[in-house]
């Protein structure tokens, strides 16, 4: 699982048939201190996330969507609160 912040979205008139109806968002990785990292991901939104949301990314099965979708990442949760124990 990867913690990230939604920084944008991808709008496309033409997609692979396996991605029809899928909402694609650009997510930047963050660490436990909410510091943005360089890593960027394109992820299928499964939970209705939006720009500025802190989200949890997970991998999904290639059989669920498209084998050509390189990272196979999906937004699986919107983070409301982050608690880190010392």
Automatic annotation (TrEMBL):
Compartments it resides in: Carboxysome
- A Pfam family that the UniProt record links to this protein: EutN_CcmL
Give the primary localization class: other
Highest taxon of source: Bacteria
Q: Which PROSITE patterns match?
A: BMV
Q: Which UniProt keywords apply?
A: Bacterial microcompartment, Carboxysome
PANTHER family reported for this sequence: BACTERIAL MICROCOMPARTMENT SHELL VERTEX PROTEIN EUTN, ETHANOLAMINE UTILIZATION PROTEIN EUTN
| Protein's name in the database | EutN/CcmL family microcompartment protein
Species whose genome carries this gene? Candidatus Enterococcus ikei
């Amino acid at each position: 699982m990867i913690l990230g912040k939604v920084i944008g979205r991808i709008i496309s008139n033409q997609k692979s048939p396996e991605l029809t109806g899928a909402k694609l968002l650009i997510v930047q990785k963050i660490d436990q201190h909410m510091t943005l990292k360089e890593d960027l991901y394109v992820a299928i939104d499964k939970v209705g996330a939006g720009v500025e949301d802190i989200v949890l990314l997970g991998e999904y099965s290639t059989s669920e969507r498209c084998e050509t979708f390189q990272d196979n990442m999906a937004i699986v949760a919107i983070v409301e609160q982050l608690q880190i124990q010392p």
